[in-house]
Write a structure and sequence with these properties.
The structure is a single chain. This protein is 32% helix and 24% strand. By secondary structure, it is an alpha/beta fold. The chain has three domains: 269 residues, Glycosidases (TIM Barrel, Alpha-Beta Barrel); 214 residues, 3-Layer(aba) Sandwich (Rossmann fold), CATH 3.40.50; 71 residues, Immunoglobulin-like. Helix 1 packs parallel to helix 7.
C-alpha cells in the first residue's frame, strides 16, 4: 500500500497542476489556486455556510438562500453533492437541482465547495468512510467523473471536499474491501512475534497503524480521480472529532495531495471533553491542531455549528450569538482562512430535520447569523490586516504522540471509581490541561502531533516542548528529543510519559530509552487518589491518581515525598528536562484550578514566555486571549467566559504600543493597556 500511495503522490507532484497549486498558496488570489482559475478572486479570510440542497426545493427558494448569503457578507458556501439526487434508476444523470444552486451562487458572487457524497444509506447522515468492495470503488470513480466533468463549467465552483469527515474513531469497518487492503498492507508491515531485544509482542497496534495508512490511501485515491478531470480547483477535506480521531490522521502526507486542510468543530458533537463554559478554549485547541496539521498549506474550519440541534448530536444546545462571534474570531486568530457554518438552511427530513440552521423557518437571518455577518463585515473593512496575519508564536509546543492514543485505546478499560486516567481520553485531557492553563495566561500554545514539530533546527533556545502523560513513545524518539534538549530546548514531562514503547512493553523493565535524557528511571508508580497534592517549592500542585518515584541517575531532585524523589531536573547540553512523573496537567484540570500549574509554567517556561509580545498581566480564569501579527501590528482577540465583567491588565512586554478597538460586541472599553470586558464579550484590538 505504501508504494501505491507514493505512486499517487509522485504523479501529482510531477504535474504542472501540483506545482501551480503550491506556488499560489497563502496568496490573496486564493488558497492554492492557479492564477487563471476564475475563483482566484476569493478574498481571505471568509465566512460562509452550507446550503443544503435536496429534492422538493424550488429555484426561487434556492436563490433566496444565496441572496441572504450575499446580503450578510458571506462569500463562500458548501454544498453536499448527493449522488442519490443526481443518478436516476435507468443509469442516466440529472444535475438540474444542483445546477440551480450553482447558477444562483454565480448570480450572487458566492464560491462553492462541493462535497463528494456518493450514494449511501438514507440514515447515513455523515457518509461512509471507506468503500465496501471493488465494485463500490469503481462506482465512486464513475460518480467523481460525472460530477467533476459537469460542474467544472461553473465559475462559482471553488473546490472539492474529498469526503465528509474522514475518521472512524479507531473502529475499522472490516468489509471485504478493507480486509483485502489490510492483507496487502501486511505484506509490507509483517507482524513480529518478538522485539529486537527478545521480548514477546502480546498486544498488537497494527490495526491502528493500518487505519492511519488506509485513510491516507483512500483520500489520495479520491484526489487522484478528481485530478483526472479537474486539474485546477481546490482539494480539501474536513476532519472531525479531532480530540479523539487525530491519531488516524497523517496530515504531513495529506498535504501532498490537498491544497487546504479543514476541520469540523461542532460543539454538540465534538466537544465532549469540555463544559459549555470551555467551548471557546475547545475551539482554540481544535483550531491549533488543524493549523499544525496544515503546515505549509492553508487551513479553514469547514464546519461550525450554526443552530439548534434538537434530536441529533451528542449534546443538545443552540449556540448563542456571542459564541458564534467567539468561534469566528478564535479561528481567524489561529490563521484560519475561513469558517463555514453547518448550515445556512435546515434539511427537511432525516435525523437532522429542522436543525443546525443559521436561518429561521421563514428564511430570515437569526441573531446568530447577524452576529456572524458583523464579524465578516469587520474583517472585510480591515482586509489588509487579516488576509496575511500570522499567529504570534510563543515557542511553547504541546505535543501529542499518536502511539499514546493508540495504546490508551487498547489498555484503558475504565474503573468502578471512574478515574479519568483509566478511561480513554486521559492522554488527550492531560495535554489539554496545559493548553487551558496557558490560555488563562493569555499565551498562544502550539498543539501538534510529534511528527509535525520541526526537529531540524540548529538552535532551540527559547523553545519549550510539553509531553503530558504521553504513555507510549517509540524508542526511536529518544535521540530526537535528546538532540532538541542538547541544542537548548526545554522539555517538560509529566505523568506516565514513556511508560510503554511502541509495542506496549513496559520500558521500566525492557530498557528505559529516556534514562540519559530524563536523568533516571522510575522505581515504581503508586496509586494515591483521584486528586492529591504534589509539593513544589513552597506550594502544592494538584495531581491525579498515580505518583511516580524516581531512581535518580543524574540531575537535581526537584521534589520529594517521604524522602524519595518524585521530580527531577536534568541538564543536557544547552537545554534542560523537568520530569514530574505525576499527572499534574490532568490533576489541575480535574481540580478546576490552574493557579499552581500556571505558577510552575511561569518559572519553567520563562525563556519561551519572554518572547510573548502581549499576554495577561496576571492569569485570568475563564478568559482567553490569542495574538496575531500583521505587518508591524499585533492584533489581540480577548474573550470573557465569566458571568461577570472583568478588568484586564495586559502585559505589553515593555513595548510602547497604542491600541485601537476594531471590534466589540458588548461595548467593551480600552484605556491604555487596561480592558473592561463584559460577560461573553469578544474584543479585538490592534496594537501599533
Amino acid at each position: 500500500m505504501k508504494n501505491f500511495i507514493r505512486f499517487i503522490i509522485l504523479i501529482y507532484m510531477l504535474t504542472d497542476t501540483g506545482s501551480a497549486l503550491r506556488a499560489k498558496q497563502n496568496t490573496q488570489e486564493g488558497i492554492g489556486q492557479p492564477a487563471n482559475v476564475s475563483n482566484a478572486t476569493l478574498q481571505l479570510p471568509f465566512v460562509g455556510a452550507q446550503v443544503f440542497i435536496e429534492p422538493g426545493q424550488t429555484p426561487e427558494e434556492i436563490d433566496t438562500w444565496f441572496r441572504v448569503l450575499e446580503e450578510n457578507h458571506f462569500t463562500v458556501c458548501r454544498i453536499r453533492m448527493f449522488e442519490s439526487y443526481m443518478k436516476k434508476q435507468d443509469g442516466t444523470w440529472d444535475f438540474t437541482l444542483f445546477d440551480n444552486a450553482f447558477r444562483s451562487a454565480e448570480k450572487h458572487g458566492i464560491k462553492v465547495f462541493g462535497t463528494i457524497f456518493p450514494y449511501t444509506e438514507k440514515t447515513d447522515i455523515g457518509g461512509f468512510k471507506f468503500p465496501r468492495d471493488e465494485a463500490h470503488l469503481q462506482s465512486i470513480a464513475l460518480f467523481i467523473k460525472q460530477l467533476t466533468t459537469h460542474f467544472v463549467q461553473f465559475k462559482s465552483l471553488y473546490g472539492w471536499v474529498l469526503i465528509n469527515e474522514p475518521g472512524v474513531g479507531g473502529k475499522i469497518p472490516w468489509t471485504e474491501f478493507t480486509k483485502s487492503k489490510y492483507n496487502e498492507w501486511k505484506l509490507n508491515h509483517p507482524q513480529k512475534e518478538f522485539t529486537a531485544k527478545g521480548f514477546p509482542i502480546l498486544v498488537e497496534l497494527s490495526d491502528q497503524a493500518f487505519l492511519y495508512d488506509y485513510n491516507t490511501w483512500f483520500l489520495g485515491w479520491i484526489a487522484g480521480e478528481i485530478r483526472k478531470y479537474d486539474p485546477g480547483h481546490e482539494l480539501h477535506v474536513n476532519n472531525h472529532q479531532m480530540f479523539q480521531n487525530c491519531a488516524e490522521y497523517n496530515f504531513p502526507e495529506w498535504r501532498k495531495f490537498l491544497t487546504s486542510l479543514g476541520g469540523s468543530a461542532h460543539a454538540a458533537w465534538h466537544f465532549g471533553y469540555f463544559t459549555r463554559q470551555q467551548y471557546a478554549v475547545a475551539m482554540s485547541a481544535n483550531s491549533e491542531i488543524v493549523r499544525s496539521g496544515a503546515g505549509n498549506i492553508p487551513w479553514l474550519m469547514t464546519e461550525l455549528q450554526g443552530g439548534n440541534n434538537t434530536y441529533s448530536g451528542g449534546t443538545p444546545m443552540c449556540p448563542t450569538k456571542e459564541e458564534i462571534a467567539q468561534w469566528l474570531w478564535i479561528i481567524t486568530a489561529t490563521e484560519g482562512k475561513g469558517s463555514i457554518f453547518w448550515s445556512l438552511n435546515p434539511r427537511s427530513s432525516g435525523i437532522e430535520a429542522g436543525e443546525w440552521a443559521l436561518l429561521d423557518f421563514q428564511n430570515n437571518p437569526s441573531d446568530r447569523m447577524k452576529a456572524a455577518s458583523r464579524v465578516a463585515e469587520t474583517i472585510n473593512q480591515q482586509r489588509a490586516l487579516f488576509e496575511n496575519c500570522k499567529e504570534a508564536d510563543s515557542g511553547i509546543n504541546i505535543l501529542y504522540i499518536r502511539q499514546s492514543l493508540w495504546a490508551e485505546s487498547k489498555m484503558a478499560e475504565g474503573s468502578a471509581q471512574n478515574f479519568e486516567a483509566r478511561k480513554v481520553g486521559g492522554v488527550m485531557k492531560s495535554a489539554l490541561g496545559y493548553f487551558e492553563a496557558l490560555s488563562e495566561m493569555g499565551v498562544n500554545a502550539n498543539f501538534k502531533a510529534f511528527e509535525e514539530f520541526d526537529f531540524g533546527k540548529q538552535d532551540y533556545k527559547g523553545t519549550t516542548i510539553i509531553l503530558a502523560h504521553q504513555i507510549s513513545i517509540p524508542d526511536s524518539y529518544a535521540p530526537i528529543l535528546e538532540n532538541f534538549v542538547l541544542k537548548g530546548g526545554k522539555l517538560i514531562v509529566d505523568g506516565l510519559t514513556g511508560f510503554f514503547d511502541e509495542n506496549l512493553h513496559n520500558t521500566m523493565i525492557t530498557g528505559f530509552p529516556f534514562e540519559n535524557l530524563f536523568g533516571g528511571n522510575i522505581s515504581e508508580f503508586k496509586l494515591v487518589d483521584n486528586l492529591f497534592k504534589l509539593q513544589w517549592d513552597d506550594y502544592t500542585i494538584p495531581a491525579h491518581l498515580w505518583r511516580g518515584f524516581i531512581a535518580v541517575r543524574s540531575g537535581e531532585i526537584a521534589s520529594k515525598y517521604d524522602g524519595e524523589p518524585v521530580a527531577l531536573r536534568n541538564k543536557h547540553g544547552n537545554g534542560e528536562v523537568l520530569w514530574i512523573p505525576s499527572l499534574i496537567g490532568l490533576g489541575s484540570r480535574l481540580s478546576g484550578d490552574y493557579t499552581a500549574l500556571i505558577r510552575l509554567l511561569n518559572k519553567e517556561a520563562d525563556k519561551s514566555l519572554s518572547n510573548v509580545p502581549i499576554r495577561f498581566k496576571t492569569a485570568r480564569k475563564d478568559m482567553l486571549m490569542k495574538t496575531i501579527r500583521s505587518g508591524s501590528s499585533f492584533i489581540t482577540v480577548v474573550i470573557n467566559k465569566r458571568d461577570k465583567p472583568g478588568q484586564v491588565l495586559l502585559d505589553l512586554g515593555g513595548k510602547a504600543l497604542v491600541g485601537s478597538l476594531l471590534y466589540s460586541n458588548k461595548q467593551g472599553k480600552l484605556s491604555g493597556n487596561n480592558l473592561t470586558i463584559k460577560p461573553e464579550e469578544t474584543m479585538v484590538i490592534e496594537w501599533k
